[in-house]
Structures are given as structure tokens and as C-alpha cells.
Write the C-alpha cells for this entry.
Amino acid sequence: MATDPLARIVRKAPQAIAGPIDDTLVILNLEAEGAYHHLNRTGRRVWELMDGGPTLTGICGALTREFAVDPAACAADVSAFVDRLVERKVAILEPSAPA
């Protein structure tokens, strides 16, 4: 049985450090020379919501309460955004815990 991809847990990678610049965020991958990533306000909020290892569903729930965004659009955008963070090795996706 296939699991819901939004039920995956997302965590910050241990080699990633981040610091705010105004209302944005810069993430540095300590294992990649000069690899840093600049996040806008929404990306910064997703990064903040990653504390504690929430599911992608949990992140989308928080974002739809905080921003005027359609839940389906939020799910697609957050999933794609987190996939990019994983590709850049600053986030880790794990399967959800069994119910």
C-alpha cells in the first residue's frame, strides 16, 4: 500500500546552518564548499516549521492558517520546495512513523 507523500517527516540536515537577514534566511551547507541558499519569507517560514520534525502535512496546515493559500497549491509547492532542500542536502525526508 502506497503511503501519502505528505505524511513524510522533514528534518533539517545536521550539516545545515541558517541565519536570518531581515525577513529572509540564508542556509549554508557546511559539507559543500560555498553552497548557500537564500530563502524568501515563505521559505524561511517553512524552514522554521521544520523544527521538531513535522510532516509535510503539518507544515502545510500551518502555512494555510498563516497565509492566504489554497491547501492543494500549498501541498504541491511545499513538497517541491522540500524536495529541492533535500537535493541540496540541507534537509532530510523520512517516512512517517507507523500509526
Q: What stands out?
A: The chain has one domain: 5-94. The beta strands are 9-12, 16-21, 24-29, 36-39, 91-94. The chain has a mean pLDDT of 88.
